[in-house]
Amino acid sequence: MAKRGTCRCWVALLLLQAISLHFGLDFAKRVGMPRRPKSNPRARDRAASLLQVDSPESIPTTRSWNRAPAKSLRLPADKGCCSFRVKRHWRWRQMIEEPLGVYEFCNSTGPPRFHAIFASAPGEEEFLGCFRTPRDAAVAWDRRARRAEWPVLNFPVDGEEEGPTLLQDRFTFYRSKGFPYPPTSAAWRRNQLQDLLKLNVTGVWRSQWMLQLDDLQRSPGDELCWSFHPHSFAVSKTKGANKEMGPVKKPSALETFSSNAGLMKSLRTCLERCGDPACSPETLRGECKFHDDSMIFQGGGSWIANFPATVAAAIYQRFAPGGVVYDACAGWGGRLLGARLGGVRKYIACEPSSKTFAGLEELSNLLSPLEVELHRCGSEDFDVEEEVDVAFTSPPYFNTEWYSDERTQSHVRFPTVEAWRNGFLQPMLAKMVTALRPGGHLILSVTTRRAHRRSGLDLEGDVHQIVEELGLVQEPTLTMLKTGTDNGRKGRPIFVWKKAAG
Ligand SMILES: C[S@+](CC[C@H](N)C(=O)[O-])C[C@H]1O[C@@H](n2cnc3c(N)ncnc32)[C@H](O)[C@@H]1O
Ligand SMILES: *[C@@H]1O[C@H](CO)[C@@H](O)[C@H](O)[C@H]1NC(C)=O
Ligand SMILES: *[C@@H]1O[C@H](CO)[C@@H](O)[C@H](O)[C@H]1NC(C)=O
Question: N or C: which end of the chain has fewer CB within 10 A?
C-alpha cells in the first residue's frame, strides 16, 4: 500500500508544485528525493463509489485509447539520458507505488535515470525528458497531463485524482470480478449496431487512396465484434516462425490478466496512458492485450486485432455498392459488419475455427437485411458458387496468430512456410480470382513483418507474385492510416487488383 504523508507534507507539496510550475523544471530538479504525497481523500471516495457497481459493464467509459502494439520508443541517448536498451524490471511494490508516466532506466556506466513518457495521442508517445529523481520526472509528467486535462495525476490538487493510490483498489476489484469480457446482452448489441448505422462511413476516406480513423487500434464496431468472440482473449500471438524450436507463444490477454504482474501493469497504463481513472473493462481489455505477464515493462502481449468495420464499409461502398462480396478468411467479423454498414447485398465467407464460426453466425443474425452465407472450412478447399463483385480478405499470416489447434487452421495443416504457400495461399487466391466477375476487384490487407522475413516468409512478395501469375492488373494501393495524427508515415497498405473485363 502507498505510504501516507502528513497533512503538512501535502500542503508543502502543493506549494512546491505551484513553485515548480512557476519556475520551471530546473527548480524541480534541485528538490531532493521524492516523498509520496498524501492521497486525495475525495479521489479515494470517488474511487470507492466507482467500485460499488455490480457488474463491470456498468462502469462508465471515459475518454481513453489503447496504444499500438509493442514498439520501442526511441529515446535520446545524449543529455545524460539512458538508452532504451535496458528494460525495466519491476519489483511488486514499485508497480503499485511508483509515480505515473515515470520509467527508470540505467546503463552499465551511469546512475539510474528517470524518464517521463506521455501518451500524447493514440499510438503516439511523447518523451518529456530524463531526470535525476522519480519526483522530477513525475512533476514533468503531471504538468503535461494537466495541459491534456488528464483526470489522474501523481500530485493532485483539489478535485483531481491521484493515480497510484487507485491501483490497489482496482486490482482487488478486477481480481474478484474476473476477466472483463464485453457485454453480450441482445439489447446492448442492438444499441451498438444502431449507433454504428448512424455513422457516415464515406468520411473514412481522407483522400482518394487514403483511409483514416482516429484510432485504428480501437475502431467503431470492435466492441460489437468482440462481444461474439469471447475466445479471442485466449488467442496467442507467436514470436515469429522459428524453424527449429517451433513458434513461441506470447501470453494471451486472458493469461496476462490472470497473472498479478500482468494485471497490475495493465491497470497502471489504464491510468497513465489511457487517462481512464475507472479502468473500464473496455480499456483494461486493450491493455491486457498489450502487456505480457512478466515483471518487465516491455509490451509483449498478444495484440489480436479486428479489421476495422468502418474501413471495410468504406471499401465495400466504393468497390461493391449493393453487390455481392467474398471474404476467404472472415476472422473476427470486421468485414462482415462492414458489409452491413457499407450497404452490401450479400456477404459470403469461409472461417474454419469452430468457435469463431459460431460467433460469426450469431453476429450475422443481427445484420439483416444483409444476406450472409458462412462456410465452416478452409478457403483453399472452397469454390464460390456465384460471381462476386469484390473478393476482400486479410489472410492469416502463417502462424503468427494462434487461432486454434484445429487441423483446418492453415498453419496446422501446412506446417512449413513452403507447404503453406503452395497448399493454402496459392489455391485460396486462385479461388478468389475465379469467383470474381469480369471487372471485379481483388482486395488484400497484407504486410510482411520482420519476423516473417527471418523465417523465410515474404507474404507481400508472394501475394504479388501469385496474383500477377493469375493475370490480374494492379491498381493504386490504398493506405490505411494508423492514427488521426498520422500523415501517411505509418499507414498499412491494402492492395487492389482488377480482373480484366470480358
Ligand atoms: C482474417 S483473420 C486475422 C485477423 C484479422 N485482422 C481479421 O480480419 O479479423 C484470420 C482468420 O483466418 C482463419 N483461417 C485459418 N486458416 C484458414 C483457412 N485455411 N481458410 C480460411 N481461413 C482460415 C483463422 O481462423 C482466422 O480467423
Ligand atoms: C550511460 O550513462 C552515462 C551517465 O549517465 C551517460 O553519459 C551515457 O551517455 C549513457 N550511455 C547510454 C548509451 O545511454
Ligand atoms: C458523408 O461524408 C461525406 C464526406 O465526408 C460527405 O460528402 C457526405 O455529404 C456525407 N453524407 C451524409 C449523409 O452526411
Answer: C
- Looking at the structure, do residues 392 and 469 belong to the same domain, yes or no? yes
Residues 353 and 465 in one domain: yes
pTM for the model:
0.81
104 plus 201 within the same structural domain: no
Q: To test the ligand 3 pocket, which listed residue (200, 201, 208, 210) has its Cβ within 8 A of the most ligand atoms? A: 200
123 and 208 part of one domain = no
Cell (9 digits) for 251: 501470453
pLDDT digits over 390-435, tens only? 999 999 888 777 777 888 888 889 988 899 999 999 999 999 999 9
Alpha-carbon distances of 493 from 69, 236, 404, rounded to whole Å:
17, 24, 27
Domain that holds residue 154: 7-56+74-161
Ligand nearest the Cα atom of residue 109: 2
Residue 125 Cα, ligand 1 centroid: separation in angstroms? Answer: 31
**Would you say residue 435 lies in a domain?**
yes
Distance (Å, whole) CA 142 – CA 156 = 9
Residue 323 lies in a domain: yes
Count up the domains in the chain and report the number: 2
Q: Is residue 263 part of a domain?
A: no
Strand partners, 496: 443, 475
Q: Tell me, yes or no, whether 336 lies in a domain.
A: yes
307-366 confidence digits (pLDDT tens): 999 999 999 999 999 999 999 999 999 999 999 999 999 999 999 999 999 999 999 999
* Geometric angle at alpha carbon 115, from 112 and 119, rounded to 5°: 155
Q: Are residues 80 and 215 in the same domain?
A: no
Nearest CA to ligand 3 atom 4: 203
Q: What Å distances lie between residue 464 and 41, 327, 457, 474, 480, CA to CA?
A: 61, 18, 13, 9, 19
User: Nearest CA to 410 among 399, 54, 502?
Assistant: 399
Cell numbers describing residue 502: 470480358
Claim to verify: residue 322 and residue 457 sit in the same structural domain: yes
Half-sphere exposure of 421 (CA within 13 A, CB side): 16
Coil, strand or helix: which one is 91? coil
